[in-house]
Specification:
There is one protein chain. With 131 residues, the protein is of the alpha+beta class. The chain has one domain: 3-Layer(aba) Sandwich (Glutaredoxin), CATH 3.40.30.10. 49% of the residues lie in helices and 17% in strands. The chain has five helices and four strands; from the N terminus they run E-H-H-H-E-H-E-E-H. It is globular.
């Protein structure tokens, strides 16, 4: 396969807000900015969604470790405008949702089947570590 396989993930994702680049540098030098961003990341999702996001993150790390530059992973926060548009486009109503190559859809954390689809599209056998 010449071009990497696009894997879009629609999920509730932690959000942190940043200043412009110049201000971020100034705030970072004071050490104050890091505390704010850490707090935002800790409190941006309720505990059940944070656990779900961690499970998703672990799965993505396994996919990246296995396929490296054969896949492009794009995580889209469903609470964003892009997330709303992608949800409507793909007909997704349960999250996290995994859309492979814009065609194959897996909802509600169906990581095993999504991993098998990625392996098939890349012409490889699925390993149990990515399920």
């Amino acid at each position: 396969m010449n071009t990497p396989l696009l894997v879009e993930i629609l999920a509730y994702a932690p959000t942190a807000f940043y200043h412009c680049t110049h201000c971020e540098v100034a705030w970072r030098e004071t050490g104050f900015s890091n505390q704010i961003h850490d707090e935002q990341m800790r409190s941006s999702l309720p505990s059940d969604l944070a656990r779900e996001y961690q499970t998703l993150s672990d799965w993505v790390q396994g996919i990246i470790n296995r396929y490296s530059d054969q896949v492009i992973i794009k995580v889209i926060d469903v609470a964003s405008v892009e997330g709303l548009i992608k949800s409507l486009k793909y007909g997704v109503r349960r999250y996290p949702a995994i859309v492979i190559d814009g065609k194959k859809r897996f909802s509600g954390g169906d990581f095993r089947n999504a991993g098998e689809a990625i392996a098939t599209l890349l012409g490889q056998e699925e390993a149990s570590t990515t399920a």
